[in-house]
Amino acid sequence: MDQESWLSCEKTAVLQGGFLLANQLCQPAPLSALRKEDWERVGRPIVQAVTEICGQRCGGNQDQLNWRKRILCIVWSKILEMETGEDIDVQWKENPLFSVQSSLPDINHVVMFELVKSVGFYSIYVELLQCFQEAEQWRELERLAKHVSSDCKEEDVKFLLEVWWELMKGRRESLDNLDQIFSAQCIRFGQITSDCSSQASKRFKPDPEAAVPNMCIFSLLFETLNSIKECITSPGLCYFGLSNCLDMLYTSFMLDHAVELPVEVKLQNIARSVSQRRKNSVLEGAELAQAIFEAQRDLAATLTPAQSKPCGMTFAQAMETLLGIICSWEAKALLTMSNQPSEPSVLAIRLKDSLQRVLEALERMKSENLDENGQALINLKKALTDLLASSSFSMSESPSTEIASVATAILDCNLQGFQDLPKLYASKLSQAISETEWLNCLERNKSAFQQKDLVMTLVSTLIAKSQGDTDVNQSKKLKNIIMDIFSQLLLPDKNAALSEILKLSKKGLHGFLPSSVTAGYDGELNLAFNSIIQGGAQAKSSLSSAVSAVARVAFQNPEAALGRCCHMAVVNLGAHTLLAQILQQLPGLRSSQEQNLLCRCLQTSVWNKFSSAQEEEQFLHFLSALMEPTIVEKTEEKVEKLCFLLPEEAVHAFVLPFFSSLTTGSSSLELCLRVLQCALTHIPSGDATTSWIMNCSPFPLLYSLAQLLNNCSRCWEQSLEGDTVLSIESKELLISILTMLGKAVGKEVELAPGTWSRAVSWLYGKVEALDWTVRFYLKEVWGQHFKYEVPSSLMAVCDLPEQEWSGLLLPHYGQGTGLLAWVECCCVSDHVQATMLDSLCLNLLNPEEVNMFSKGLMVAVIQTLPWCTIEEWERIVKVLCELLHSDKLHVPYSLEYVDFLPLLDLRSFASDLRLSVFLLRLFQLLCGSSCADWLPPQGWAHVSRLYASAMRRVIDSAKSKVPIPSTATSFKTPETSNEVLSQEVLFVLAQLFCHVLHVQVMIPGQAEPLFLCALEILSSYEAVLTAYPKISPAVQRANTRHFLTTIADNVQCADSRAVLHQKIAQL
Fold first, then answer.
1. Do 180 and 252 sit in the same domain of this protein?
2. Does residue 799 sit in helix, strand or coil?
3. Residues 6+ away with beta carbon under 8 Å from 889
4. CA separation for the pair 446, 519 (Å, rounded)
5. C-alpha dihedral sign at 560, 564, 569, 570
6. Could you tell me if 1041 and 1064 are in contact, meaning their C-beta atoms sit under 8 angstroms apart?
7. Angle, CA 748 vertex, CA 747 and CA 750 arms, to 5°
8. Does 136 share its domain with 246?
9. What angle do CA 674, 676, 679 make, to 5 degrees?
10. 3-state secondary structure of 609
11. Contact indicator for 275, 292 with CB cutoff of 8 Å
């Protein structure tokens, strides 16, 4: 009902009628002059009208409760209006209650006090009293004190004590519309009063010696009760009054901060209060919630420091006053609590609580430090101790069912001030009420349990119930409720819960539940991951949902969830990236056990079960993504990034077990090497420590890798049973790993040489039995401790410093093998290659020596070529180019593929042509009868790939000499100089085509890389012709096509030959 409607409804008419009738009964005196003793004769019509509107004192619906406050608000506003004498023209504009107030006769405070006392509107009176400013509030309370003290009866005492107790409870948190209206009225009337006072002060000069009233509510209430103590003859009122005094003394002088009771104690107190209220009325729903709220207010009033400290009475004076009141009532035997009935009254229980509280506080006070308060404290302490001793009754605890009922109501109504209640409800109180009621409350109030600790408490309760005789359906329902609550946790709390459940069992929640409760999990697991895979999670919200779904199934069974995640990441195309992102959001699944749970799941679900190279690739990418440091962890000292899977854990799980015995199949071993390479790429760079690698048996691992590299020299031999030989393709991977691992270990050795000296010596001694080139890759490990050791024959062709290099007498490196060792050194690294080129001893002034060097170098390259990786071969080609440019390598160029001498300037292409001829001569020797059965088919395929890569380098070098316009600019006429140079390019490309096909014909097998290289040359030839059409007349083109076709006729494969013919015909 809005304000306009209730101000002019029939209930206001009833109220008006009651006051008018009372005004008639009061005649000849007006109602505004009513005296306290006349209320019995005059006030009945008012009380009847209010009762008709609001019902009886207790209970009533919300509308009746609202009307009680409206009536008191109207009456009090009427009194304030009369006191201020505000102009009527101002009132009707600014007073929202003017219409109903003007219909009432003039009244005074006696009418309001007696009305409140008659109908019991104590709490409403205090609510409106607290709308006044502090000074005005004290004045209003002083009026009440005078009214109560005059012709005091027990009803007056009860009025005072009820107002006192409500004042101690403090103002309610929320103000309704009437509170706001009345507060505005109080402020307005206060301003009018102050204006009048200021005008009067100009006319009247006050006496400076006159006493100024001390506006202390504490002293006012104490003194008033002290003055009327003799009027009290009821033990109940004595209990009430003494409790008020003790509680106000305690909160004003003995309490400096609010006391937070344990939730169990708080519930016990509230349940006891609610039980007492149930005796008078049925409490359900809103009534029960209101009763709990009021009981909580009662409790808080005694445990919260007073808002303002007393200023009109000292602690000693208060104790003396209290002691006088106690003595007076004890003399009349009004405080004897030994004769309580079987169930003590609420007031007796409250008094006993207050006595215990104050006595405990007094015990903590040292009387010698209180000066003048000391004797008063001792006397009060003795009186209170005797009084407590006389209370022989014991306060029985409320039954658990009552406590559970109250707790349920608190949760349902979301009452504030019970932060620890959900934990108690999730554990102990789960046994106090029926399973169904408890579960229903949990389901209704899931939001109240959205904390990690509460989820784990519920988990403990579920485990306990599942292991008992609880119905399976009830356990399933509780499990589902827990999972719903878990799903609503914030991500950090989810991770904390996952980490905690994982510490209990790798099977998580399901590790403690019977199969009957966990039934249906497999379906949920499948649905979760299938939905993620099918739907993807590109958007941030989708990723968040996917993370939540995985967290939910992982909380129930981390091992099963991670196993399914690993399987899906490998077998579903492209799923590894998404699933890695999801796991990176769930660091709570990182296991702190000896072996990482993720690694165990990978080993169980996917390792050694790959059905294709694609699955292996996805597995490696999945591992790599999980080793990325993307998880932010904040500590007090710093913020650092962590990874879901530590590289160290991956090495322990997938690498070290397979190096303990080198009898593993080469395919598995190559995958292990790729895992190791993946882990090594995540070693921190810069000054960051790489100590994790030192926990992975680095020196035995280095030796095992060195053994594998040593065995690569037998990659073209028939491997014996039990022998592990890696493919030539894996040699490059192995070298890369040895280099990275050597650098990482060498860094640690350099930081603490004394710690690792024995291990370094052990490794050095072990690799002495291996090929001398292997030691080059371990130089980073021992740094300056050991020199580069090379065959002594190398020292004959190189001038190497003895401080860094030393010669070895090796059986396979006799006289004349120096160039072979030199070429092998050039393959090792760019650094060693540069050293070899700089230290090469060759007299360019001696033609015979240069010729011998050139022939010897060809033989050395032939001996090295089949065992070179692509990277090593590129280094050799680079060395050949350097030697050609410096004229150290002599390669005569013969025109065996031309019918006439071309009138061209080929000086710019000299190095390219000579390199091509060198390679041609090399393969002529390699493919000769002396080396015919030197390599198996796989070896010939490998050397053909190496030759094709070298020829592509030559082709690119030749093409770079002349610009080839793009399609967009091809219409422009090129410069003449470029046209001239393009003729040389065409000639060179034709020569290269002949060389490539020559080698292809010589090499056993199809040599597909050379066939593709020949096609690439023809494409380049066509591109130059297209860019410079004028450089080649039609006759010359026809001759060129005929010549190239004649060369292509030598290709043995008919299909390849036909493709070449077709390509040549298009020139």
1. no
2. coil
3. 853, 854, 857, 880, 883, 914, 918
4. 23
5. positive
6. yes
7. 65
8. no
9. 110
10. coil
11. no
Report the SS3 class of residue 174. coil
Contacts with 897 (C-beta within 8 Å, 6 or more apart), sequence order = 990, 991, 994, 995, 1047
d(CA 182, CA 184): 5
Cα–Cα distance between 1022 and 1005 in angstroms, integer? 28
- Can you give the pLDDT at residue 212? 41
Alpha carbon separation from 557 to 379, 468, 552 (Å, rounded):
67, 21, 9
Start-to-end Cα distance in the chain: 98
Q: What is the per-residue pLDDT across 585-638, written as a single tens digit (0 to 9) for each?
A: 999 998 766 668 999 999 999 988 888 999 999 999 999 999 998 877 666 666
Q: Could you tell me how many helices (H) and strands (E) the chain has, helices first?
A: 50, 4
Distance (Å, rounded) from C-alpha 852 to C-alpha 863? 17
Query: Does some domain include residue 19?
Result: yes
Rounded distance, CA 569 to CA 520, Å? 23
**Rg for the chain, CA atoms, rounded:** 50
State whether 252 and 316 are in the same domain: yes
Best CA proximity match to 728, nearest among 996, 926, 940: 940
Last residue of a domain, one of 190, 215, 243: 190
Task: Kindly state whether residues 23 and 86 are assigned to the same domain.
Answer: yes
SS (H, E, C) 491-531: HHHHHHHHHHHHHHCCCHHHHCCCHHHHCCHHHHHHHHHHH
Domain membership of residue 1053 (yes or no) is yes
Q: How many domains does one find in the chain? A: 3
Q: Whole-angstrom Cα distance, residue 335 to residue 349?
A: 13
Contact 406, 274 (CB under 8 A): yes
What is the rounded distance in angstroms from the CA atom of residue 134 to the CA atom of residue 29? 34
Q: Report yes or no on 612 lying in a domain.
A: no
Q: How far does Cα 371 stand from its chain's mean position? A: 57
Shared domain for 250 and 318, answered yes or no, is yes
Q: CA 351 to CA 205: how far, in whole Å?
A: 49
CA gap 853, 941 in Å, rounded:
29
**Can you tell me the distance from the alpha carbon of 817 to that of 982, in angstroms, rounded to the nearest whole number?**
43
Quick one: 177 and 236 in the same domain? Answer: no
Span 749-808, pLDDT tens digits: 988 888 899 999 999 999 999 999 999 999 999 888 888 999 999 999 999 998 999 999
Position 1 scores a pLDDT of 46
Low-confidence ranges of the chain (pLDDT < 70): 1-8, 56-61, 85-94, 173, 190, 192-214, 280-283, 285, 338-342, 366-373, 536-541, 592-595, 633-639, 661-667, 685-690, 718-725, 966-980
The first and second tokens of residue 338, run together, are 């030994």
**Residue 934 is part of which domain span?**
892-964+977-1066
Domain boundary (137, 169, 190) is at 190
973, 1028 contact by CB (below 8 A): no
166 and 246 inside one domain: no
The C-alpha atoms of residue 943 and residue 728 are separated, in whole angstroms, by: 11
Enter the tokens of residue 341: 């009935």
Find all residues with CB under 8 Å of 258, minimum gap 6, and list them. 300, 303, 304, 305
| Strand, helix or coil for residue 923 | helix
In a domain, 88, yes or no: yes
Longest alpha-carbon distance in the chain: 153
Residue 575 corresponds to which amino acid? A
Cα separation, 590 vs 684, in Å, equals: 20
What is the per-residue pLDDT for 1030? 82
Q: Given CA atoms 464, 465, 466, 469 in this order, what sign does their dihedral have?
A: positive
Residue 56 is classified by DSSP as S
Cα separation of 448 and 455, whole Å? 11
In this structure, the number of other CB atoms found within 10 A of the CB of residue 395 comes to 14
183 and 232 inside one domain = no
Measured at the CA of 934, the angle between CA 931 and CA 938, to 5 degrees, comes to 130
